[in-house]
Specification:
About 70% of the residues lie in helices and about 0% in strands. The chain is mostly helical and about 120 residues long. The chain folds into two domains: about 5-60, 434 Repressor (Amino-terminal Domain) (Orthogonal Bundle), CATH 1.10.260; about 75-120. The relative contact order is 0.09.
């Protein structure tokens, strides 16, 4: 895909209007439309602005492959999927996640123990 088509695809996936990006790039809508259609080259300075708006690198825009990463929300996943996703982390991150879980489980056990024993008093 051309850079213009990449920009158009990303813009549409993010739900942005041409006129909004034209304003950000200080272009009239016609000039911006030419960028997306490949009739006008996009300047490096404009790519920098677009990268900032899209929250991507210029390289990501230039080499875009239609796969914007999406947020992963573990709560929406089954337990099996949650474990698979955690196992995809690099070892340091996985270790950190497991330590946080250990700490929270230990805290819960102490809380349950305290509540049970205070109720007996």
């Amino acid at each position: 895909m051309s850079i213009g088509k990449n920009i158009q695809t990303i813009r549409k996936e993010l739900g942005l209007l041409q006129k909004v990006l034209a304003l950000e790039l200080k272009l009239d809508k016609s000039s911006y439309s030419k960028v997306e259609s490949g009739l006008r080259e996009v300047k490096i300075s404009e790519l920098k602005i677009l990268a900032n708006i899209f929250n991507m690198s210029i390289d990501d825009i230039v080499n875009y492959d239609d796969n914007l990463p999406v947020d992963i929300i573990l709560e929406d996943k089954s337990e099996n999927e949650q474990f698979k996703l955690i196992n995809q982390l690099d070892e340091d991150d996985k270790s950190t996640v497991l330590k946080i879980i250990d700490t929270m489980l230990t805290k819960k056990k102490f809380k349950d123990f305290f509540n049970k024993n205070v109720a007996m008093l």
